[in-house]
Amino acid sequence: MSFGMDEHQGAIIRVIGVGGGGCNAVDRMIENAVQGIEFIAVNTDVQALQRSEAQVIIQIGEKVTRGLGAGANPEIGQKAAEESAEEIEEAIAGSDMLFVTAGMGGGTGTGAAPVVAQIAKKLGILTVGVVTRPFRFEGARRSQNAEKGIRELEQYVDSLVIVPNDKLLEIASEDTTMNEAFGLADRVLRFGVTGISDLIAVPGLINLDLADVRRVMTNAGICHMGIGSASGESRAATAIRQAINSPLLDTTIDGANGVIVNVTGGMDMKIKEIDEAVSQVRDSASPDADIIFGAVIDENLNDELMITVIASGFAQTSSQSRGGQVSYAGYDRRRESPAPPKKEKNDAAFDFLRTSERKDQLNRRRVESQNGHDHREDGGFGLPKVSPETETSSARTPAPSRNIEEEENEVADLVNRVSEDTKTSSERTESLEEQPKSEKPKREKTTRPGRILPWILQDDEDFDE
Questions:
Q1: Residue 194 above 90 pLDDT?
Q2: In a domain, 339, yes or no
Q3: Residue 162 included in any domain
Q4: Among 277, 251, 250, which Cα is nearest to 263's?
Q5: CA-to-CA distance for 96 and 9, rounded, in angstroms?
Q6: For residue 448, what are the domain limits?
Q7: Helices (DSSP H) in 13-73: which residue ranges?
Q8: Short-list 157, 146, 160, CA closest to 77
Q9: Which among 159, 158, 100 has a CA at the least distance from the CA of 131?
Q10: Could you tell me how far CA 341 lies from the centroid of its own chain?
Q11: Widest CA span in the chain
Q12: Which residues pair with 126 in a beta bridge?
């Protein structure tokens, strides 16, 4: 653990998205200005790669698939990754921490992700897998492929965060569309990565450095990752409860031997609130748990408190429970433990969406601040304009209460933004094609020798994004 603002710099963190689901998650991270990370997109499907926003793009298995994808066959995905192992190794070499993200159940993600993790392990890189289980309506075969792929991946990663897509069905409303459901799955996958990477990449009052994260996550197996936010009275208790009992994961922190707690708040954040959050973690985790905490002061958070919890080191209890899946203490949310008050399903979804939306806003603000733009000049991100004369006094004045109509408008606006965020890749591509080429943003791509896509070697104007 380190004090100061610059100790986090120097750690090389990379995210490698494998297959369609993994590459979608990478694109969403780039769109939302995730900090301190280099992105790599790996796929067998040439057309999907052409839409990627990643700076390093690798087509794997050119001989095996001829650029046509793995056809939902994990064996083909595995052979494709093995064929392109040298290019993958070159792309990830030198990383201090690597996230391997994929949607399990298909061909490329399921088959190639374990190969990528195996290469990273050989290089001695701290490797974290963040993957999704398929929806049950995707069929038994896809589910079986996913379980096999997860077991393979677990052999090579240090830590593994598993997001069951079926959890989205539990919190979704009857009006939730297919696009919205898959978009939310991508969003959860993204926060499985940023919830961990932000601990190192975002500077804080008490920084968590790579050594802290390595201590908790090396050879840790299944991990729990949760985020929560709250404001007003009892905000620390509410936020930590959301983070511990994530509505979108099968895990809690019960019995964890290693826990990282990161608390982010405004200038009004109190030491007692940090103590309250850590105390709740201590009550749930193993009595001998190694608990590490960090604190970040963000002036953009007035009355709001955000908490991220990473828990690992669960004791293996049975290899035959849960229909043949490996079971871990803390891995079943039905265990008897202090449970939060029950919420309606849509309330749990709203908690997650509100927190994730807030993190996106803060990331974009940090980027603007680094670029020399003061978001307060125009009241950016829906905030009122604040003048220097009124900033001090307004910080101490409670915000005026809002009426029901304003609350409903805010919720409606959030739903619209979420729906917009879940547009399919093809829709985004069509939107780009309609723009004049002069308006298309330029992005620098990194090229490497080997089976990298030949169109990467050309200027952006020579191919259709």
A1: no
A2: no
A3: yes
A4: 277
A5: 12
A6: 10-202+413-465
A7: 19-31, 46-50, 62-65
A8: 146
A9: 100
A10: 26
A11: 66
A12: 97
Burial category of 344 from C-beta neighbours within 10 Å (exposed 0-12, middle 13-18, buried 19 and up): exposed
Residue 336 is which amino acid?
A: E
Domain assignment present for 167: yes
pLDDT for 16: 97
Q: Classify residue 47: in a domain, yes or no.
A: yes
Q: Between 75 and 405, where is the model more confident?
A: 75
pLDDT tens for 274-306 read 899 999 999 988 888 999 888 888 888 888 999
Q: What is the pTM of this model?
A: 0.68
Distance from C-alpha of 213 to C-alpha of 197, rounded to nearest angstrom: 9
Residues pairing with 293 in the sheet: 261
Lookup result for tokens 């093995």: 82
> Percentage of the chain surpassing pLDDT 90?
34
What does the pLDDT read at residue 113?
Answer: 98
Pairing of strands 327-328, 258-265: unpaired
| Lowest pLDDT segment from 36-50, 231-245, 398-412 | 398-412
Domain of 143, CATH number, reads 3.40.50.1440
Check residue 39 and give its pLDDT. 96
pLDDT tens-digit profile of 5-27?
A: 344 457 899 999 999 999 999 99
Q: How confident is the model at residue 259, as a pLDDT?
A: 92
Sign, Cα dihedral of 122, 123, 125, 129 = negative
- Produce one character per residue of 401-439: b if its CB has 16 or more CB atoms within 10 Å, e if not: eeeeeeeeeeeeeeeeebeebbeeeeeeeeeeeeeeeee
Domain count, the chain: 1
3-state secondary structure 94-118: CCCEEEEEEECCCCHHHHHHHHHHH
Cα separation, 239 vs 435, in Å, equals 42
> Which residue in this structure is represented by tokens 């990565």?
193
